[in-house]
Each structure stands twice: as structure tokens, then as C-alpha cells.
Amino acid sequence: MTTLSRRTLLGLGAATAAAITIPGCSGKSGPMRVSWYGPDPVTKALNKALDAWKSSGGAEYTAESAPFNDYWDKLATRTSGGNAPDVLRMSMSYFSDYAGRSALKDLSSSGIDTSGLDKGVADSGLIDGKNYGVGQSSISYAMYVDEAAVKKAGATVPAQGWTWDKFAEFARDYSGAIQGSYGSTDQAGNFQLFEVYARQHGTELFSDDGGKLATSKDTVQEWFQYWAELRKAKAAPAQNVSAETTAIEKSLVAKGKAPLQFGWVQQVTFYQPVVKNPLSVLPVPQGTAGDLKGQFVKGLDLWSISSASKHPEDAAKLIGFLLNDEKAIKAIGILLGVPPSKKARDLVAADAGSAGARAIKYVEDIQALVGPSPKPWPKGYGELLTGFGRIAENIGFGKSDPAKGAQEFVDLAGKTLGQ
Amino acid sequence: MKRVLAHVGLTAGALIMLYPLLWMISASLRKNTDIFEHPGLIPEHPTLGNYALGWTSTGTSFGVYMLNSLIICAAVVIGNLLTCSLTAYAFARMTFVGRKTLFGLMLATLMLPAHVTLIAQYSIFRKLDWIDTFWPMIVPSFLATDAFFVFLMVQFIRSIPVELDDAARIDGCGYWGIYRRIILPLLSPALVTTAIFSFIWTWNNFFSQLIYLSTRTKLTVPVALRGFLDATGSSEWGALFAMSVVTLVPVVAVFVIFQRRILAGMAHTGLK
Amino acid sequence: MIARLRQSIPAYLFLLPWLIGIIGLTIGPMLLSLYYSFTDYALLNTPEWQGLHNYTALFHDSRYLQSLKVTFIYVGVSVPLEMAFALAVAVLLNRGLKGLAVYRALYYVPSLLGGSVAIALLWQQIFGSDGLLNDVLGLFGIHGRGWISEPGTALWTLIVLRVWQFGAPMVIFLAGLRQIPDEVLEAAEVDGAGRWQRFWRVTLPLLSPVVFFNLVLQIIGAFQAFTPAFVISGGKGGPSDSTLFYTLYLYQQAFGNFKMGYAAAMAWVLLLIVAVFTGLNFVLGRAWVFYGDEGVRR
Questions:
Q1: What is the 3-state secondary structure (H, E, C) of C234-249?
Q2: Which keywords does this chain's UniProt record carry (chain A) (predicted)?
Q3: Would A12-138+298-360 and A141-296+375-417 be classified into the same CATH topology?
Q4: What are phi and psi of C111, to 5 degrees?
């Protein structure tokens, strides 16, 4: 290893020193703690942004990070043990669970400058007039399409994506044209895509107070039915095929077995490296062609301050810095998602031909066309998210059917919401 | 002839046992995407790039994580050897009020899933101001909290003929003398087993190290390894496998060195 | 009574570290979890008393019943297989051949990998639809399937994983075999006992405390198996809840759904189940376990 240098050895020394820290001497309220989830590139980018904070005279801090799933186990334990970090990255999936149980601080009068943020993003963290988190990025749902593959199958990609009917037709034709391939991946268990579908049917997914499901059982059933038919027509893969797509590298689009993939807009940058052709970023299918009101732009990852923080002023300043400072913006780039303000997007200036640039352009293009953004996802969202996927899987394996599955989901929502 | 057959059989078995390790090494020599595309064992374009990448890519040298793990594991081995043998000796050889109840209690601590006691334990360590230090991993081992090893040693002590204790008692040994001169030497297979398992299991123990350690330079191997993967984003598979291979070196070494000691066992204690 | 207490003092001195540990670190959290099991506790709020509600809810929860079923199959199949493998290999690798130390190390390798994240990908690579197993079956003209991605077979791949990682009980058996004095076996040989007779009449009875230990602890361990399903199914217990181990479901409830009270009730039911099995083992063990402190039957 070429890197076993003096620096490495110094690092080893530091570790030894850390190991023998005498208990009781580290002080109860040390410096402000900053905590986030994400893979290594995110950690490196945020550390760089924090370096900029330090060199601009910002308060002392310590930083820590973990992969997404591990982060939540750790945060729950520490919050419950009265030891939550001061500044923390919060996902909308768990936001209401934390905010609703008074674990987060109201930022309304914290003086964080959110004036430049996209509208749906600035108030992403509003619950009952209190603001528990500031959006880090502007996110919308999207479809990434390998246009070259679609053309090869003799089809064309509409600029605004397909309607659901046309999409089903396309998926069937594609699977027929290219042997061993599927026109679509199976999205039956995708609760986040279903939210768009529900909104296309005229209601929000949840009631305004988050106390119950607003969409109807029929809509859920129709959704499960739609995908069951695509599977039956072999336009979407059978359940046991989907069950093997456990990593981006194993996804059907990466293996060239499907021409498209669904996900949050910024995730296209994770798929692009494993797909040969450029992926276009398009709106998801619609009920009426060109009507994108089902979609929304929102901040789904937020900066929050824990209610037990002993450094609330510094924490607020740091969040303001990460959102508005030029150096911080440049350091973060698009690693937390598409930047949440026009200013930041102009500064980041991703490579024109890159997937990141296409993601940014997508968000800017659809801003004016999407519907109003929904209220924060309610308490218990995490359980519904996994429950929806599980029910769809049971249908896929023939252990249930769309009607039973829809009823099961409505029952689960009845039990989970409003507690 | 019989010997040759035995070797052929054992080697065939060993290959099945070894396949995953070979596969891991092979994967560690491939580019990220090749890992998923070519399932065979021989990489087409072998590269050591993953090792260099994995060693440095977290911003802290992987050697730091290894050293942290080594410190914790070594301390846990010592703690378990010292205190579990004392506890086991008392349970196996001494009479006292409440013995059966306490023994049952000890076994019961093995039966409750750790997830539900985690938060209360976290609060205790927080009151002691031990969060983000190695103490929550180390101190419990000095208090014989791992009932697995206590029970293991109880079973081994109970199979030592009690006549040996009597003989020592006639020679003037008290409980401590019997423990030091008779039990500990004869217990060496169990002690070595405890040392091996303490080391390996602590080396692999992910959950408590995730919960208690936060500062980058204090993280341990299993926590660092999981950092290569992220469900929400891109994963560094090549680096993960490269570092997984590297982190196997110390555990294999510990096993190879210590297992000889198990086998020394009875024959070398001079107490036949 | 006082005399008996006084006689107990030396033992309590030996037990001192353990007593400090169990009183200071273990009992408190255990009792607290028992209290949580009677409450609605969402981790971030204060627990609210609700009596037996969590316990009664368990039996109306189809996923809970599924997790029980999965766990019982897992324990029932994997423990006997793992024990048999471990004992057989330990006896084979005990002595008599050159190079046994190398084999011992090689046979232990799978257990070193533990619940490493690498295992997840490896298992998919072996048991996936285009994995190694299907390649091998293909040689015999058998058309395989995605073993790990279908609810009918996924649990069996985890059972294979446990059996394949038989290293820990094997090492314990080896240590036990080493504790048997050579002269006992030699004496039996002089008396004209053959290989099998020596194994059944001498080795096995002398090894019985260790067999007993492995049996008790493997059962406890298998009931609490968490890591394999957690790592291989990505924390979900899928496909279709077919690998939803008891403790995996417990973890999902506690940390995924913020239902620590419910999870604590699950934990105490598990404790009862495991305690019954362990108690049964101890009662049955009286008939077949021989200790050095009660005279060895020869």
C-alpha cells in the first residue's frame, strides 16, 4: 500500500489516543455535533463544506455519518437516550415521526435565510405552522430512459413521457420486439410512484392532518391491477426476477434487460455509470397526456436541529451557511440532490452532458407544470412504505390478488395512521 | 490407501468451504461493474486498484479502523478470559446460597434479544460519559457479561474429575489455589476457545460499535465496511471486497495461532 | 442460615465481577424492557401504560405468526444438521492424519466471514437464478431457479448458510475431545474395544457436557438468529416474509416502526419460549450428560 506513510502513522497515533480517552473528562456539552446519512462521496463533500465553515470563522463542531439504514438505528437510539446530535440530516420518511414527538426544534424564528429556496422546498418542513426542517434539495419523481434502446426496438419516447395506457402499450411492444427483455421494470411496490398516481386520480395520498389515507381503495386496487397485467403480458418482469434486483448494478436497466427505471430525479446519477447509453430524465406516466399535476417538487431531505440541542444558534447559522454560502454550495454540488435554489443551481454548473446536468434541467423544466406539493408525509410513513412493497410482492408471488391486497393496505393504513 | 482417500475427501470438503473466500478475493480484483457481470472465479482484467481505493477512500486510512478493532478485540479477550473463568469456577465447583437462581439468571441474559435492552444500556453508558469511546465495548467483558463463555467454561470445569480438587485440598490448597493450579491449566482448551471466539465475534460485531462510536478516527472495521454500501446511492463493491479480504487477515492469523493451543490441551499440562 | 451465608462468601468473591456486571449493566435494562412491554413506547416519547395490549395484539398479527413459523423451521432443521456436521468433522480432524491443522483452519473459514456484508452478495451469486448452484445443476440437465428470490426456497438458503458455518461448535467439540485423557481411550483399546465402540462407549459420554453445551447454546442462538436474514434480505425478511426471523421482525418493529413496546413484548415471549426449550434440555440432559464431578461411567 503506497499510502502507509507518515500521515497514516500519525492517524494510527490519533486512534490510540482516542482509545485511551479517560472517561469523565470529555465534558458534557462539547462542540456542536453535525450528523448525516449517505455514502462516502456525500461524506467527503459535506466535510469539505464544513471545512469552509471553519475557515470562515464558524463555531467548533464534530462531524459523523453513516449509511442510510444504519443512520436511523443510531439516531433513534441516541435521541431516545437524550443524546441527539445538534444538526442532523432528516429524511421525509421519518420526519413526522421525529417532529411529531418533539424531537426537532421549531426553526421559524431561527433566522435561517431560506429566501432563495424553491417554493415547495422552503416549506417542506412545515407542520401546523411550525417549521421543523429546511429542504436540502429540490426533488421530484422521474423516469430515466435509455432512448437508444427504445429506438432500437422501433419505438419513440414522447418528450413529456407516456400516459399510463400508452406506457403499457409501449412496454408490451418493447418486450415483444426484443427477446428476453421487459419494456418496464415492475413498479407495483413503489409507494412513492404510487403517490403521483394517486394525485393523478384527484386526491392527495394522505389527508391534510396525516390522520388517514385520502386516496381510495379502488385507486390502490387499480394500481396493483395495472402492474399485474403488465407482468402477465411479460411486459414487466415476474416477481422472482424483480426480487433479484437488489442493487443498482443488478437492476434490469443496468443489465440491458429493460430500457428504463423509475426513481427520485437525482438517483439518475447513480444509474448512469452502470448504463452504457445516456439516460434521459422524463416525467413519469400521466393520466392525461402532458398533465404533470400529479407530480410535485419538494425537499425530501432536510436539515433539522434536535430539540435538545445546546447550540441552537450555531446550528441555525451552520444550516444557513450550507444552504447559501458559495463555497459550501460548490463543495456539496449535486450530491445531496438537485440544489434547492436557482442561485445554487447556477453555481454548481454540472457538466453539460452529464446525468447531473440533465437532472437539474428536469427540475427546472417541470417546476411550472407540477401540482402543489403535499404536506409532509405523516407519522408511520416508513411502515406504510415497506408494507405497500410487501403487499405488492405477495400479489406478485400469487399469494394475494389486487383486490385483497388493496384491502390489506387500507387496513394497514387505518391501523398505522393517526396514532 | 486409506490415508489418501481421507485426504481426497477432506480436500474436496475444504474446497466447498473455501469457495466463498476465493470468490471474495477474485471479486476484490475486479472493477465495480465486472463483479456482477462475470460470475467465474478468474478475473479477466485483474487490478489491485480496489485495495488502494478502499484503504484510503473514506478519508481516514483503513489501518486506523483495523487498529481500533484490534484494541477492542484484545481487551475483550483479556476481560473474558479473566472474569468468565472466575465466574464459571464459582458456578461449577462452589456451593453458595442462590446458586441455582443465579445460574438460571445468567442463562436468561442470553435469551433476551439485545435490541430491546440497547436503549437502556445506552443511557447507562451515557451517564458514565462513555459514548464515543471504546469503553462500552470493553468494560462489559471485564464484568463477565457474556454468559456464553461462562456456561462454556462451566461445562468444561464440570468434566474435570473432582478428585483432582480433593487431592489439591489435601495438599493445602484453598479455592483460589485450586482455581489457579488445577482448574485454569486443565481448562486451557476452553480458555483458548474463548479467546478465539471473543476475538472473532468482537471483530465482526457490528451493532454496538455502530451505536456507540461516532468520530471517524474511532470507527472500527465492521462499521467502516458498511460505509462502502449505501442503499440510497452508489456502492463501492470493489473496495468493499478488497477491504473484506484485508480484514480477514488478522482473524485468520488469530485462529491459526490459537487453535494449536487448543490441541496442546491436556497432553502438555503435566497433570495426566 | 447465617452459617450457610458465611460459607457462601468465598463464592461471592469469585462472582464479584459478574455480580457487578449483571446488577449494573444487565438486570436494569432487562427489567426496563419488561416494563416497556406493557406500554406504548415509540422510542421518542415517554412510555404510556397499556397493560397486556401488546401481548394480546401479538396473536392477531399475521406477520408475527409468520415470524414464529419461520424461526421454528429454522431452528428445527438447522440446529441438528449443524451439530451433526460439527461433531463429525471435529472427530475427523481431531488426530491421526498429517496436515490436520491446515484442514481445521480451512473448515473454519466460513465462520470467520460471519455476517459480513460480503456474504449477502456471495449468497446471491451462489443461489441466484444465474448463480453457481444452477450452473452445477445444469451439468446434470436440471433447470434451476432463483433459490434466494423465491419464497418457497429462500429460507433453505439461510439454513444452508448456518450449517455451512459450523465452525464454532466444531472448535468447541475439538476442545472437548482434547480434554479426554489419552489413557482412558488407551485402556479401552487394551480391553479390546473397537473404534466404534470406543467412540460410543468412551468418547461420547466423556464429551457429553460439551455436546450438551453446544445443543443448548445453538438452540438459543438459532432462535435469536438475526444477522443472516438481516444481511441477505437487506433487512426486509423477504421475499414475501419467507425469511422473516423472529428477531428481524422485532427489530423492524422497534427501529423501523417506532414500536419499542411491541418489540419488548415480542422479546419477552421469545425469552419464555427459549427458556422452556432450555429447561427441557436441562431436564432431559440429566439422563445423558455425565460430569466429572459425579463420577464418570466407564
A1: CCCCCCCCCCCCHHHH
A2: Sugar transport, Transport
A3: yes
A4: -70, -25
Interface test with B, best of C15, C103, C259 (most B CBs within 10 A): C15
Helix (H) or strand (E) holding A281: strand A279-282
> Cell 421487459 appears where?
A182
Instruction: Tell me: pLDDT of A6 over 70.
Output: no
Which of A69, A71, A244 should one mutate to test binding to chain C, selecting the residue with the greatest count of C CBs within 10 A? A244
Per residue in A329-353, pLDDT (tens digit) is: 999 988 888 999 999 998 887 777 8
Model pLDDT for residues A83-99, shown as the tens digit of each residue: 999 999 999 999 999 99
Q: How far apart are CA B50 and CA B48, in angstroms?
A: 6
Over residues B165-212, the pLDDT tens digits come to 999 999 999 999 999 999 999 898 899 999 999 999 999 998 999 999
pLDDT in tens, C127-175: 888 888 888 888 888 888 889 889 999 999 999 999 999 999 999 999 8
Distance CA B139, CA B149 (A): 16
Going from N- to C-terminal start, the domains of chain A cover 12-138+298-360, 141-296+375-417
**Cα distances (Å, whole numbers) of residue A67 to A268, A273, C140:** 19, 20, 43
How many whole angstroms separate alpha carbon A33 and alpha carbon B7? 58
Exposure string for C92-112, b = 16+ CB within 10 A, e = fewer: bbbeeeeebeebbbbbbbbbb
Q: Pairing relation of β-strands A32-37 and A134-135?
A: unpaired
* H/E element, A239: helix A239-242
Is the pLDDT reported for residue A283 higher than 70? yes
- C234–A contact, CB cutoff 8 A: yes
- For the whole model, what pTM was predicted? 0.92
The answer to whether C7 and B95 have CB atoms below 8 angstroms apart is yes
C127: closest chain A residue by CA:
A244
Fold of A141-296+375-417: D-Maltodextrin-Binding Protein; domain 2 (3.40.190)
State the pLDDT at residue B268.
40
Q: Please state the φ and ψ torsions of residue B145, each to the nearest 5 degrees.
A: -75, -15
- Helices C167-179 and C62-92 cross at an angle (nearest 10°) of 40
- pLDDT band, very low/low/confident/very high, at C31 (cuts 50, 70, 90): very high
Alpha-carbon gap: A383 to the closest alpha carbon of chain C (Å): 6
Residue B232 reports pLDDT greater than 70: no
Q: Residue B139 is placed in which grid cell?
A: 468494560
Query: Which member of B51, B218, B231 has the closest CB to residue A15?
Result: B218
Angle separating helix axes A217-232 and A381-396, nearest 10 degrees:
40
Cα angle: A202, vertex A374, A405; to 5 degrees: 60
Assigned CATH for A12-138+298-360: 3.40.190.10
CA-wise closest residue to A218 among A245, A191, A198: A198
